[in-house]
Amino acid sequence: MFQNFDDLSDPSCGAPHLVLLGTELSRRGLDGFLIPRADAHQGEYVPPHDCRLQWLTGFTGSAGMAAVLDGEAAIFVDGRYTIQVREQVDMEVFPAQHLINEPVTDWLTARLKPGQKLGIDAMLHTVREVRRLKKICEDAGAELISLDDNPVDSVWEDRPSAPVGQVSLYSVELAGKSAADKIAEIHTAITENKADACVLTQPDSIAWLFNIRGSDVNHTPLPLSFATVPSKGKPSLFIDGRKLSNSVRDALADLTDLAEPDEFKSGLAALGSSGAKVMIDPALAGIGIANAITEPGGSLVEAQDPVLLPKAVKNETELQGAREAHLRDAAAYVNFLCWFDEEAPKGELDEISVAEKLEAFRRETGVLKDISFDTISGAGPNGAICHYRVSRTSNLPIPVGKPFLIDSGAQYEDGTTDITRTLAVGDVSAEMKKHFTLVLKGHIAISTAKFPEGTSGAQLDTLARIDLWKAGLDFDHGTGHGVGAYLGVHEGPQRIAKTGTVPLKSGMILSNEPGYYPAGEYGIRLENLEIVTEARDIKGGERPMLGFETITLVPMDRRLLDVSLLSEFERDWLNRYHLRVREMVGPLIGAKERIWLEQATETI
């Protein structure tokens, strides 16, 4: 199994670990300290070695921060984790606050006193973030102290070792563009920004640029590393040599100068000493990186990571790979749904057995490299936890009479998949059907949207919510995230969300996943992946419009529909989608499963 179901969280750890940290802070003369979930790469995918927030509080979510000041503490999470945090963290020790509505900056502003010293790990807080923190400290008469080491590490006795997963080469046949051509493209971007070099901190940017993949974090083929790229000449890749076989080392040596990670800071200092203008992304680079450049005399050019957009806009080879991966994945998923429909009414399934079976069907493809994240297998109230992770302690039986939510994905070398379906087990209530149908209406609105060049995800996000809003309902997560090409299942900078300000471009892949989650009852989410299509003329229109091509090919559960709530346009969309699913997936599955698929995709 790629997924395990061990209990990773222990709320009882909060009190003793806070005492340990408080003692260490006192020893260092600090009054407070911030503990983000991030590592030095500022990525979503963090190895156990860097899960400091989890060690301190028990919280296992993918975003959050704890603050400790004068013996008082709090944990800050966004809307995805408001239920989860209360189950994983001792609220007496770390009261939970909303990361957006009640940010840590407000918490600090209300508590910082003149003369106090607030510590941060300089590699874990970005340049942009540190500016805000400095302003808060200055206004309070306090001091922000940037540390080169982390106090948590000093008291974390059983801290796991840093990962040394093996690195592999990613062929041009899959990538669609050579690493040399990509490096030349980034050289041009650096020159256009009037810089002498740039620093890359994101492992997926580095993996894309050098056409490599790794195995340092769960479910995502990332090699943890740093890189510097000059405007001309060879880049430098700072990566643990133990991750490189001789053949991989030889191939990379033709492209880049290789160095160990502990040489990264000295490499930055050398750039600074030469007076170089160095491009960094202030939203991604730790303040420790900026300081290492500026203190010896270098200057900063602040701009977005130049790899983000080229990586997000897939070439035709990557797009075709994604289509093929999704078709393969759809066949495995339909096999799973046929099995589920037969077994679930018997009342013997639970969240873990379902997740295991879905992974088994994907393994039968013979080319599964990993799942793309821990399967969210949410029965009853667990389905209402947006990013629920099933464990042996939390595992629930699949109830009859409620929707069952399953959000999962796969990593194939030609593409990364991510799909959510909400399934009926037995008869469900009229209210549940209403909620499912409102979510589906939002999903259809995104899938069928037409929009001009320059449109951002924030401008589309309302389409997914408007029918829920009319019913007084909403969901506390974005409608869609970017997806990588055999990279991260969550990829920026593109997203469909209230905060999605980046214009969508042809070739980007995004999820389309509105939902609804009545706390303590059940969850509903419907997710397909969509490719942004080239701008096309519309008959009678005045300008070409972008749109979406749906590449996920799995039926929606018609048993959860309240057809009376669907417009004729929406019914036609669902019927056309199901016809396409039937025609494309049917030839890839067995006779029994084909009969099931024909019934599941009947015209409404």
Descriptive overview:
- It is a single chain.
- The chain has 604 residues and is α+β, with helices and mostly antiparallel strands.
- The protein contains 19 helices and 27 strands.
- Helix 16 (430-447) packs antiparallel against helix 17 (457-470).
- It is globular and about 70 Å long.
- The two termini are 38 Å apart.
Provide the CATH topology of the largest domain.
Answer: Creatine Amidinohydrolase
Distance between the termini: 38 Å
Cα radius of gyration in angstroms: 25 Å
- Named CATH architecture of the largest domain: Alpha-Beta Complex
Order of strands across the main sheet: 4-3-2-1-5-6
Give keywords:
Creatine Amidinohydrolase; 18% strand; single chain; alpha+beta; 6-stranded mixed beta sheet; Creatine Amidinohydrolase, Chain A, domain 1; 604 residues
Write the topology of this structure.
Elements: H1 14-27, E1 32-36, H2 52-57, E2 65-69, E3 72-77, H3 84-88, E4 96-98, H4 104-111, E5 117-121, H5 127-140, E6 143-147, H6 151-155, E7 168-169, H7 172-175, H8 179-192, E8 197-200, H9 203-210, E9 212-213, E10 226-230, E11 236-238, H10 246-253, E12 257-259, H11 264-273, E13 277-280, H12 287-294, E14 299-302, H13 308-312, H14 316-343, H15 351-363, E15 370-371, E16 376-379, E17 403-408, E18 410-412, E19 415-416, E20 419-424, H16 430-447, H17 457-470, E21 480-482, E22 491-496, E23 509-512, E24 515-516, E25 524-525, E26 528-536, E27 545-550, H18 568-585, H19 591-600
Parallel strand pairs: 1-5, 3-4, 5-6, 8-13, 11-12, 13-14
Antiparallel strand pairs: 1-2, 2-3, 7-9, 8-10, 10-11, 15-18, 16-17, 17-20, 18-19, 21-22, 23-26, 24-25, 26-27
Helix pairs in contact: 11-12, 14-15, 16-17
